[in-house]
Structure formats: C-alpha cells, structure tokens
TrEMBL record:
Gene3D superfamilies: HIT-like. Residues 58-167 form the HIT domain. A motif (Histidine triad motif) lies at residues 152-156. Keywords: Hydrolase, Nucleotide-binding. InterPro entries: AP-4-A_phosphorylase, FHIT, HIT-like, HIT-like_sf. This is HIT family hydrolase. It comes from the Bacteria. PROSITE patterns: HIT_2 (PS51084). Pfam families: HIT.
C-alpha cells in the first residue's frame, strides 16, 4: 500500500489533471464584465488594411472631418487631441501629430514640444471637468507593444479614479464607459483654454 494520498482518478502519487473546460461558468471570486461589443476592436474591424498608407490611417483622416464627427477636442499647429474611439476609461484622450510618423524619435522638435504641451493641457482639462485622481500616460511603440495603429504615433492620456479597477482594463481591453463619447468631447472642448 502506498503512503502517498490517492488522487481522484485512483492513481497514487500523481495529481489528477483537471480540464479547464469543466469549470466554465463555475462561480468564483472574480467578477467579470462581458463586453462582446469590443470584439470589433480586437478583431481589427476598423483597422486599415495597409497601416502605412496615409489615406487609410484613421489619425490622418480624422483632421479632415468636423471636430464633432471625428471626436476632436482641440487642434494645434502640428498635433491635435482626439477622444479614443475604444477608450480604456471615460475621458481617454489621444494626442496625435498630424504627420504620419510611427516612431517617437522621428518627430521633429516642434512636434515633440506640441505633443508634450497638449498632453499637459489635456491633463489640466480632464482634471477640471472630470476630477480624476491620477493618469496613465504613454505611447505604445509598435504592434508588439500594444499599439492598435502602430504606423501613426499617438500619446495616450487615460484618467484614473479610485476603484475604477486596476491596470487590467488597459491590458485586458475591457471597460464599461458611463458617458457618451460625443458628450465627453463637448465637455472637454468647451473647457479647453483659448490661446492668447
């Protein structure tokens, strides 16, 4: 007789292999928010076939549309601020250069300065309108780094609040947004400071 405990499949000394499919739908401590509508983004429904073709790039096309239609909050000289169509959190803005460039090191000095200044102003506007407790700022450089449109550089400005979740929504790409994008765009555009 073996001194090792017997496993559920009757074999002593070896743990039973569990099939994860046996646990689908079994309640646990994890609360899940199912968002099947995000499959359009995950599947690349609105992604350009050729990301290097300026004519197909959504960040090149947006400035050619009205601010309301494109969800543009502010237009600068070499960069603009737009709401993310697939936000990680309410009020998620993108700061984009007009020029179709993929790498941060390829920005010219004026673009670097304006992207930085628009990011700072975006934070101030979001604080005034939405009162977040903090921000996630950053650029995903390349598809492997998580860039949805890697061919056109864009800086993320994501407001954060206590209890809004952890960093998982940014990584897992799942989030409930309590305000319509058009309403957020209007609030932020109205609060954007006029330049002297």
């Amino acid at each position: 007789m073996s001194s090792e405990p017997e496993t559920p499949d009757g074999t002593a000394g070896r743990p039973a292999v569990e099939d994860a499919r046996d646990f689908a739908g079994v309640p646990d401590d994890t609360q899940r928010l199912w968002t099947p509508h995000r499959m359009a983004y995950i599947g690349g429904e609105n992604k350009p076939e050729d990301p290097h073709d300026d004519a197909q790039c959504p960040f090149c096309a947006a400035p050619k549309r009205t601010d309301e239609d494109a969800l543009i909050v502010h237009r600068g000289k070499s960069a603009y601020v737009i709401l993310n169509l697939y936000p990680y959190n309410a009020g998620h803005l993108l700061v984009c250069p007009y020029r179709h460039v993929s790498d941060y090191t390829d920005l010219d000095e004026a673009e670097v300065l304006e992207v930085a200044e628009l990011t700072r102003t975006a934070m101030r506007v979001i604080r005034e309108v939405s009162a977040p407790a903090g921000f996630n700022l950053g650029m995903n450089q390349g598809e492997v780094a998580g860039a949805g449109i890697a061919a056109h550089l864009h800086q993320h400005v994501v407001p954060r609040w206590p209890g809004d979740a952890n960093f998982l929504p940014v990584v897992g790409r799942t989030k409930a947004i309590p305000i319509l994008l058009a309403d957020t765009r209007r609030l932020y555009a109205d609060a954007w400071p006029e330049l002297a």
